[in-house]
Model the fold of this input.
Amino acid sequence: MLVGLGKPDDAAVWRIDDHQALVVTVDFFTPVVDTPYEYGAIAASNALSDLYAMGAKPIFALNVAAMPATLPAAVVREIMRGGAEKVREAGAVIAGGHTVQDDEPKYGLVAIGLAQQERLITKNAVQLGDKLVLTKPLGSGVTTTALKNGKCSPEDEEQVIAWMSQLNSQAARIATDVGVVSGTDITGFGYLGHALELANASHVGFDFWLPAIPFLRGALDYAREGQFPGGSADNTRYFRDQVSFDSAIDDYSQMLLFDAQTSGGLLLAVSPSKLERFLELAAAAGQPAWVVGQAVDREGIYVHHHLPESPQSTREQNEGLIFIS
Done:
């Protein structure tokens, strides 16, 4: 066992031989959107994300589902179809699974992948001076909560579904190609919660630049309306004492960084010598990537209100996103 309960990584890793390793994870949750197919696709993307965060390629998956007996079979089929087609997009297959009855729908995957041991991405290998690169915008928690409460615009619903359904496969491929060795994905613990796991495991601190961090259109408005899922408050209580904010950053912007995410992007620690190549490959592949911070010789996280320099991004245009200033 190369990675197990003793390390706070995104998946378990079992050594097969001198080169290959088996990477295994499980994740499932209740619906975050109203449409069954999209719910299945998002849940599958979220589960597969833990493999990508470790530098693994999915090979097969098992369905994990709990469904009400009163839920029409056609709805269950659409959930499963959404998951199966997303797994197929990842180059893997659904090989079985298990279901039980429950009052509220729950769906996800046991996801299994392969990785080269020398190309594993873990949380404990960030080096001082590494640049921190984010590959999806934040704000899915407040946006999907607004959707549940009937407060989300159709345009914002379409945007958040598209981002949550997007696999992290391309970002992971680029990361392993350039030799990134440390990173994680952004999900339920929120941006700052997962960043702290990465920083603490590597015994470094992080500086983040708020104006460089991308958010979904509407996210700040939904934050001001209080459309936060319950997990966001839990994240704030648990992680707040390890985070310091510039005094110019308002409470809503702070809370957005603790917002519980679903199927978020990768947060990767890229050495300065590899950053230009990473961004070049990302731009060529159409993979969004934003340089949002750096690793420093200090404990905890500090969020700056201003940029130390112009933010680097693979995209000149960030249509539909907002950047808080």
User: Anything to note?
Assistant: The longest strand covers residues 57-67. The longest helix spans residues 36-53. The two ends are 45 Å apart (CA to CA).
